[in-house]
Design brief:
The chain is built from 5 helices and 5 strands. It has helices at 13-24, 39-45, 63-69, 87-92, 105-123; strands at residues 4-9, 30-36, 50-53, 76-81, 97-100. Strands 2-1-3-4-5 form a 5-stranded parallel sheet, with helices on both faces. Strand 4, helix 4 and strand 5 (97-100) form a beta-alpha-beta unit. Helix 2 (39-45) packs parallel to helix 3. The two termini are 16 Å apart. The mean pLDDT is 94.
Length: 125
């Protein structure tokens, strides 16, 4: 599997730092292309394979607004949030995964397994 280009969208610097540290442990699999701290930056910068997307961006626009804006791009979306009440909405929006903060290394390992499985299925068609 080739390196997955990703972007982290989160308004919390500590969460960005934590996610970066986690993903850097999988440097052969993930390459962080960019970081966005709000809706405007996210919509402008998202041009990757995968987006780690926080729901609460502490503004009028949230992670779902970002998702709706990029819905026609072929990008896997992984919500990263402290709130479990948005899971159903995320599923209905075809999110690839939904990780609850604080995100652990095991969450990233499981995500990577699912991504590899999805990639393998796509290649078999």
């Amino acid at each position: 599997m080739s390196t997955i280009k990703c972007i982290i969208v989160d308004d919390d610097f500590d969460c960005i730092k934590h996610m970066t540290l986690l993903l850097n442990q999988f440097e052969k699999e993930f390459k962080i292309i960019n970081v966005a701290k709000n809706y405007e930056e996210a919509v402008f910068l998202i041009d990757t394979d995968l987006v780690f997307l926080d729901i609460d961006l502490r503004s009028e626009k949230n992670g779902f607004d970002v998702l709706y804006n990029i819905k026609f791009k072929n990008i896997a979306v992984v919500f990263t949030t402290r709130f479990d009440q948005f899971m159903i909405q995320a599923i209905r929006c075809s999110a690839f995964d939904y990780l609850l903060k604080p995100i652990e290394i095991e969450d990233i390992e499981k995500l990577l397994i699912r991504l590899k499985k999805k990639k393998k299925q796509e290649l078999s068609f």
